[in-house]
Every structure is written in structure tokens, then in C-alpha cells.
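=== How it folds ===
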Amino acid sequence: MTKKGGHSGHHMSDEEKERIAKELYGKSYADLDTNQQKSVGGHYGGGKTHEMAEEHKK
């Protein structure tokens, strides 16, 4: 099955970004610096990918 577009995985909604930014840094996503914003994105994408990889090992 192929997906249209160049992105893999699913996009993060603004609500998810806000929630994770507040969880990690205690402030709004818009108030984070670039590295913190990348961390929020990585927290979301990286965690899910890693969990799926662990599931496949079993």
C-alpha cells in the first residue's frame, strides 16, 4: 500500500504539540526555541516508531 505525499507516519496536530510542549517544558509550543520544538516532534514520532519496532521483535 502506498501513500501519497513524501511524509511517513502521521502528522502531529497542534493540540498534540501543545500538550507535549506543556508536559516537557511547561510552556506553549509557540514559546519554545527551535531545539525544544524538535524535541517535542521527536518525542512524538520517535517514541511511536520505537514502540512499534519493539513489538515486531517479540
